[in-house]
Amino acid sequence: MVAQSRFSRTLRTVVGWAVVALFAFPLYYWLTIAFKDGSEIFNWPPHVWSFEPTLRNFEEVFGISFGYGFGEQREVLPGGGNWRMAPRLWDSIVVAVLSTALAIAISTLASYALSRMTFRGRHHFVAWILSTRMMPPVAVAIPVFFIYKEISLLDTFTGIILIHALMNLPLAVLLMKSFFDDIPVEIDESALIDGASRWLIFRRVVLPMVKGGMAATAVLCFIFSWTEFLFVLTLTQTGLKTVPVVSSTFVTSTGTAWGSMAALGAAAVVPAFVFILLVQKHLVRGLTLGSIKQ
Amino acid sequence: MFNANGGGTLKIGVLSTDRPLIWILPLVAMLVAFTIIPVIYNIWLSFHEYAPFKRQLVFVGWQNWQMLFADSRMWEALWTTMFYFIIVLSVELVLGMGLALLLDAEEFGFGLLRVVLTLTLVIPPAIVGMMYLLIQDPEFGVLTYVLDVLGILDKSVPILATSSTALWGVMLADIWQWTPFMFLIFLAGLRSLPAEPYEAAMLDGASTFMTFRRITLPLMSKVIAVAVLIRGIDIFRMFDYVFVMTSGGPGTSTYTLSLYSWQQTFSFIKWGYGATLSLFTLVIILVIANAFIAVTRVRW
After folding, report:
1. pLDDT tens for residues B91-106?
2. What backbone torsions phi and psi does residue A255 show, to the nearest 5 degrees?
3. Which residue in the set B123, B243, B265 is minimally distant from A269, CB to CB?
4. Option in A48, A113, A193 nearest B23 (CB)
5. What pLDDT sits at residue B254?
6. Is the ipTM of this complex over 0.85?
7. For chain B, how many helices (H) and strands (E)?
8. Selected residue of B19, B112, B130, B267 to mutate for chain A interface (largest A Cβ count, 10 A)
9. How far is CA A219 from CA A72, A116, A207, B154, B212, in A?
10. Contact A157, A240 (CB under 8 A)
11. Chain B: residue whose CA lies nearest to A268
């Protein structure tokens, strides 16, 4: 639009910064909790700007003692448990990486076919995929719990990886389809006329062209698996637990280990922050399942 | 829908010699195994109930379904879900649009501000729930403090443990985390708008508000519909925040349908009734979402 007055531009700048600062404040506050000593968390009025930063929470959560070597737990926390969480971070990584790989493998094949081949009922098939995205997780988790119990998949990595891959499939298929649709179909056709097989075209011609889109899809699948709560809560017991579920167990009847929880949360969120910065370009397309292109 | 494949009959002939089934088979297998079979199992389960003394499922006919419609707590949970859905969706919609309009400019540092706003999207909702549990803690929560100092809500009223305020406390977490979702989509929408209508409106001397109302909103209708659909689905089936922050309490004031079905199944061992509730939730979402798609003609 045309030149605005100096005043309205300044006003916009100030308001913009103020609003985003307000939005960012809970994040900042959360980080300060991660670096606060136990007693300082419970101050009234809350200490927001000035406090003594400490790494104790991280030491306790990950069982590492900075400056003391690999130490023992120094204090029993509320609930009396051992809060060492490094293994849980590992569980989260395994589940997120493998379920993403599975979802990408399945969805790339299917979305290439959906984008390039005509077959009866294709429209209904897309609608079916979309309605899978609408299913409330609880309506899947309840029956899957009993099915898993029958076939001994309860509390296993395989079980969680499969269900997370399923959860990400609608997103992955629709998003990958939108990336395939961006590539002119003439490329496939000329290769077909030259006698190349579908598989060869897919593997050698089209797939290299959607690499960027594939990476963006993978990042989003990773994040959604990383942040998923209900399936892990329902389908695991002690064999594995991902970070979101384990953080909810910090709330106990005798109090909440806020410091440890904030430290674990901060450690779990940082990699996701880095990932989201990498896919800014495709973020909106991903969030809208490929229907809106930036 | 069908990507532009030129329309030549020869080309279509070549394409149709493919075997799409092989390509989509893994996907179909996954969808059948994890959506069709569970739904069928759920329907079967809804006609049974766990008998604690026999330690097994027994057939109960339509009993669960009759109970469902007679259950006042189910209606209460449905109402809570609907209320939460309407409030959170409208607030996120309005705030997201406001933010997009505000930050769609190249003022000092706005690029950075736009990136900062995307960060909330990757935090696990359960952890956001914990954050807001802490912020609203009656003893030392920073929001409790601010509201107390401003005289809005006294410190003696614990936000999440008072039935009149608990749901609002939960909504706050949702709104904080997902307004940026709306913001990002609307920003992309604003940036893809054509310039001509705005030039014409300028020449006609239309006010900023009229321009927004008559040009921006209609041009953005598809974008808004998509954002409302996707966000609406997630809000309706919301579970994480209430589970972590209030577990449905105090009393029954923050039970959503998802939480209620989960608790019936896993806390109260009412396997059949929980399955019935979750099916009911599933049906409501499918009906509302598909009606919305039909009305707004959103296409994938």
Report:
1. 999 999 999 999 998 8
2. 135, 170
3. B123
4. A113
5. 92
6. yes
7. 16, 2
8. B130
9. 36, 24, 17, 44, 35
10. yes
11. B123
Q: What are phi and psi of A167, to 5 degrees?
A: -60, -35
Question: CB A244 to CB B126 under 8 A?
Answer: yes
B63-92 pLDDT, tens per residue? Answer: 999 999 999 999 999 999 999 999 999 999
Tokens 């308001």, residue located: A15
DSSP-assigned states of every residue in B170-229: HHHHHHHHHHHHHHHHHHHHHHTS-SHHHHHHHHTT--HHHHIIIIIHHHTHHHHHHHHH
All residues of chain B having their beta carbon less than 8 Å from the beta carbon of residue A142 are 42, 45, 261-262, 265, 271, 274-275, 278
Question: Over the stretch B21-38, which tens digit does the pLDDT of each residue have?
Answer: 888 999 999 999 999 999
Give residue B12's identity as a one-letter amino acid code. Answer: I
Contact A235, A163 (CB under 8 A): yes
pTM above 0.80, yes or no: yes
Contact B255, B77 (CB under 8 A): yes
Report how far Cα B229 is from the mean position of its chain's Cα atoms.
8
Please give the span between the terminal C-alpha atoms of chain B, in angstroms, as a whole number.
Answer: 7
Tens digits of residue pLDDT in B242-291: 999 998 888 889 999 999 999 999 999 899 999 999 999 999 999 999 99
Contact A229 B240 (CB under 8 A): yes
Nearest CA in chain A to B1: A123
